[in-house]
Design a protein that fits this description.
By secondary structure, the chain is an alpha/beta fold. It folds into 2 domains: about 130 residues, Alpha-Beta Complex (Aspartate Aminotransferase, domain 1); about 220 residues, Aspartate Aminotransferase, domain 2 (3-Layer(aba) Sandwich), CATH 3.40.640. It has 15 helices and 14 strands. It has a 7-stranded mixed beta sheet with strand order 2-10-9-8-7-3-4, sandwiched between helices. A hairpin with a 2-residue loop joins strand 5 and strand 6. Helix 3 runs antiparallel to helix 12, helix 5 crosses helix 11 and helix 13 runs parallel beside helix 15. The longest helix is centred in the C-terminal third of the chain and has 24 residues. The chain is globular. The two termini are about 40 Å apart. About 45% of the residues are buried. Bound molecules: pyridoxal-5'-phosphate. Pyridoxal-5'-phosphate (PLP) binds next to helix 5.
């Protein structure tokens, strides 16, 4: 594992590199893509090897006998998260945006609402609204520079239309690892309003000093309303295989989800199953090293942001996505965005796409080679040098 190894991704159908010009006007030959949550690192060698086995065999037919695949997932969750998963509770979907969409179909009706704690990963609201459901945006409060939930405010927003709540844990884009007491409060909130709780824990493996606690351990008492979503794709940078896991222990919820899997004809692709199994079986050391590398990148980014007057990065406990507030510059949004995109040649995600509360932020993905990050940060500092 060599995270410093630079790999050309231009003209490789990488959305991160290929679409930075059309979306952000940043030329990939001179700029740095710091937007979509995709890393510039090769996955563990065993993931390549698993694909090589398929390629050498030379036939790409339907996949059968997924026992080892399921066991690799339960093994990972037990080793890394102390969470005992029953192999038969696992449903494999085409990634977790698809998993979210299937949950919306399974647990809500057209016209119902789904609660989101915003700002949050933008695909949630996209999927919910496209399915004819509404979003109740419960805005996260900022206390001591970090996101906190404000349930007194949320109680006032509840109008009886909500059937489901989606928690992003750890939180994208704020980088929070929620504490046990915060998770319990979310669980109590779900009980109070009789909501199905979807806990999207796709970012659970990439943490720094703080350990992620999985919802079934924080709040075992709500297992009858809990749906878990996990995937190897963020952790191992294999998102192109579009494979995720929706894990449901409760029999009734399982039956509802299973019906929608049937109704939509959802079954996994064999590439994703091979890759996920290899990653979860052999990826422990790789992830430990990755987290160390990302932690050093995080410090470089934070130090740069701290030197630019008016910019503030949210302290991060997880993910490789830094959430930076530009409101202190006093500049109109168009100006700071122009400086980031046109002067610093950085494509960063625009905060308003994450919902209420994100308006003055940009999100920077720092999962790239250190040399690339250092160059990008130098250009960022330079783009705001007149403020020094
Ligand atoms: C919280 C969260 N859920 C889901 C996804 C995407 O999942 P998938 O690629 O499996 O559809 C992302 C991607 O960034 C994410 O941040």
């Amino acid at each position: 594992m060599n995270f410093d190894k630079k790999i050309n991704r231009i003209n490789t159908h990488s959305v991160k590199w290929e679409m930075m010009q059309p979306y952000y006007g940043v030329d990939p030959k001179i700029g740095t893509p710091m937007w979509v949550a995709d890393m510039d690192f090769e996955p563990p060698k065993e993931v390549h090897d698993a694909l090589a086995v398929m390629a050498n065999q030379g036939i790409y037919g339907y996949y059968g006998n997924d026992e080892n695949y399921r066991n690799s997932i339960t093994g990972w969750m037990a080793r890394r998260h102390g969470w005992k998963v029953n192999p038969s509770d696992i449903f494999t979907t085409h990634g977790l945006v698809n998993g979210t969409a299937l949950c919306v179909q399974s647990f809500t009706e057209v016209g119902d609402s789904v609660v989101l704690f915003t700002p949050v990963y933008h695909a949630f609201s996209r999927v919910i609204k496209a399915a004819g459901r509404k979003v109740i945006e419960c805005k996260l409060a900022i206390k001591n520079g970090r996101y906190k939930m404000d349930f007194d405010a949320y109680d006032k927003q509840m109008d009886g239309s909500a059937k489901m709540v989606i928690l992003c844990s750890p939180h994208n884009p704020g980088g929070r690892v929620w504490t046990v007491s915060e998770l319990k409060e979310v669980a109590t909130f779900a009980e109070r309003y009789n909501l199905i709780l979807i806990s999207d824990e796709i970012h659970h493996d990439i943490t720094f000093e703080t350990k992620h606690i999985t919802m079934p351990i924080a709040a075992p008492e709500i297992s009858d309303r809990l749906v878990m979503m996990t995937a190897a794709t963020k952790t191992f940078n294999i998102a192109g295989c579009h494979t995720g896991n929706v894990i449901i222990a409760d029999k009734k919820l399982k039956a509802r989800f299973s019906t929608i899997m049937e109704a939509t004809g959802t079954s996994a692709n064999s590439f994703g199953l091979y890759m996920t199994q290899a990653a979860y079986s052999f990826g422990d050391k790789w992830v430990d090293s990755l987290c160390k590398y990302l932690d050093d990148n995080r410090k470089i980014l934070d130090a740069t942001i701290a030197r630019i007057p008016g910019l503030q990065s949210m302290p991060m406990e997880a993910t490789y996505l830094s959430w930076v507030d530009f409101s202190g510059t006093g500049m109109p949004k168009s100006e700071y965005i122009d400086r980031v995109q046109k002067k610093a040649h950085i494509a960063a995600s625009h905060g308003e796409t994450f919902g209420a509360g994100g308006e003055t932020f940009l999100r920077f993905n720092f999962a790239t080679q250190r040399t690339e990050l250092i160059k990008a940060m130098a250009r960022l500092e330079n783009a705001f040098s007149d403020l020094q």
